[in-house]
Design brief:
Layout: E1 8-11, E2 17-19, H1 28-34, E3 60-66, H2 70-82, E4 86-93, E5 109-114, E6 121-122, H3 130-133, E7 138-142, H4 145-151, E8 162-165, E9 181-184, E10 187-190, E11 197-199
Parallel strand pairs: 3-4, 3-7, 4-5, 5-6, 7-8
Antiparallel strand pairs: 1-2, 8-11, 9-10
């Protein structure tokens, strides 16, 4: 069974951290992992690649999470807010999600959307991004490929630095097998070593087949 790539959701202390992931229908890997009990052993490799980078001049950070993409952005929101940044988290799902985004540190602003209107605003999260662009110094996003492609069509985002985190299957995690290769404006890149964080406009989205 190939390894599964997951984002670090929370770091509790130097010895403990949390993962947050979806158990996919007919997903053998995630189903197996969800059934582990306290005392069981799993093999981990990481952290891999490069994370989000905050520019020295940035003070206002807009985080855009789509579905399970909230896993890594929750950690980013918590850590940056502690360091004095102004943080707004936008979280969009298809239907109401039990994820406790309201458990973020008080002071982190949140905006929730659902496609069916069962929670927050009705619509796709990308429809509401333009409302926050002028406020933000930088934008960080994590979500499905369809969300990223929609973001490339938002004119207001073309003048803002936008970093996105890609999640693709990784065979080795060391940049050797080329199983997680993506095409960028700078040539072929491996998500496990060159990423998983890339600039939104650096990926050749029309040629991404994941």
């Amino acid at each position: 069974m190939l390894p599964r790539p997951f984002s670090v959701h929370q770091v509790i202390n130097k010895e403990y951290f949390e993962l947050y992931f979806a158990v996919l229908e007919n997903g053998k890997g995630t189903d197996w992992l969800s059934q582990r009990q306290e005392g069981d052993t799993v093999e981990l490799l990481g952290p891999l690649g490069n994370g989000f980078s905050i520019y020295p001049s940035s003070r206002k950070l807009l985080l855009v999470a789509g579905g399970m993409g909230v896993a890594s952005l929750y950690f980013l929101a918590e850590e940056t807010f502690k360091k004095g940044y102004s943080v707004t988290m936008m979280y969009g799902t298809a239907i109401e999600n039990p994820y406790p985004i309201d458990h973020l540190t008080p002071g982190v602003k949140t905006f929730i959307t659902t496609e069916d209107g069962s929670a927050g605003k009705k619509g796709r999260i990308t429809e509401f991004i333009p409302e926050y662009i002028d406020w933000a110094d930088q934008v960080f996003a994590c979500g499905p490929i369809s969300m990223y492609k929609a973001m490339t069509q938002i004119p207001e985002l073309k003048v803002k630095p936008v970093q996105i985190s890609l999640e693709v299957r990784m065979g080795c995690g060391r940049g050797v097998c080329y199983g997680c290769t993506v095409k960028t404006k700078g040539g072929l890149k491996q998500v496990c070593t060159d990423g998983p964080v890339f600039d939104l406009d650096d990926i050749l989205w029309d040629e991404l087949v994941y």
